[in-house]
Amino acid sequence: MKTALVCGAGGFIGSHLVKELKSQGFWVRGVDLKMPAFSETAADDFMVADLRDPYNCRSAVDRRFDEVYQLAADMGGAGYIFTGENDADIMHNSATINLNVLDACLRRNNKRIFYSSSACMYPAYNQEDPNRPVTQEDSAYPAAPDSEYGWEKLFSERLYLAFNRNYGMQCRVARYHNIFGPEGTWDGGKEKAPAALCRKVAQAENGGEIEIWGDGLQTRSFLYIDQCIKGTIMLTRSDFEGPVNIGSEEMVTINQLADMVMTIADKRQRIRNIPGPVGVRGRNSHNELIRERLGWAPDEPLEIGLRKTYTWIAGQVERARGRNQRAAA
Ligand code: NAD
């Protein structure tokens, strides 16, 4: 039986990845600070452990796995990574995890490690025009990410590739672009734009109002979780080390995204644009390289994943409302 280790298995992408690996017949160990928030883990073995501790990493990597996926990171939406208040933690925590995981893998001769970098590592100067952002993989330098989160990702992707060169490892590096879907964080400050908008639309009355950070003209693309998992596994098993974008090329403004959610919800609400952290002005995935090297690129229309995500978040909002009403009674 093939074996896999998923670091960050209690998180959004990690918990979905564990399910997919299980459905492919793998024996899976998950590791995370916490269990998945919204459903039981599918992992055969789940270690609740802090990967900043090198000894925990060595306990997690106590054998040779066929595949290791390193998704653990100190992470959040714009409200967490772009305010500047969490910069020291983001850089220190995530870099420490990556240093420790790599060291533990090397000790046990684990060569094939997938690492999830982010489109946040691309230079800010290429993302000022919302209509023509540049995210070709080779546009990374001269480096100028707009957040410390992006700088840490850039450092860590270089770290994994250096281990390939110097220690004969076979790490694979993907740059994810805004992954969304059911069972992702949808409130509390670490949620991303699609989840935040689904929540706001679900919570507000038809004819009411929702708030959007910035003027809403900033552009992004969003990739549904199933497509992300497919690309992740394909890259890990391929002979291409990356870094390569895993993202959607369907670029929308945040106001358009809000409109799409309202249409799905069958509600009309006024958009009030308020000051808030927004990140770069424009970003879209560029998929020529992944198409060329993997013979595949994400192609599912945004609306399909958004529909599934809205249904799930509207259910969560309803449940929370019920809980609050019972508590008040
Ligand atoms: P997530 O926050 O849901 O998952 C990350 C997990 O890492 C969390 O469950 C967290 O508890 C765990 N973790 C954090 N610190 C840890 C520690 N010290 N020890 C053990 N576990 C720890 O985020 P996600 O959306 O699932 O993202 C997974 C990876 O993909 C991250 O590396 C993230 O930076 C990257 N990424 C995600 C997106 C996206 O849109 N979701 C975009 C670009 C990159």
UniProtKB/TrEMBL annotation:
Q: In the UniProt record, does the keyword NAD occur?
A: yes
Task: Kindly indicate whether the keyword Protease belongs to this entry.
Answer: no
InterPro entries, A to Z: Epimerase_deHydtase (IPR001509), NAD(P)-bd_dom_sf (IPR036291)
* Keywords linked to the UniProt accession: NAD
Q: Pinpoint the NAD-dependent epimerase/dehydratase domain residues.
A: 4-247
Q: Name one Pfam family in it.
A: Epimerase
Protein name according to UniProt = NAD-dependent epimerase/dehydratase family protein
Q: Organism, per UniProt?
A: Microvirga brassicacearum
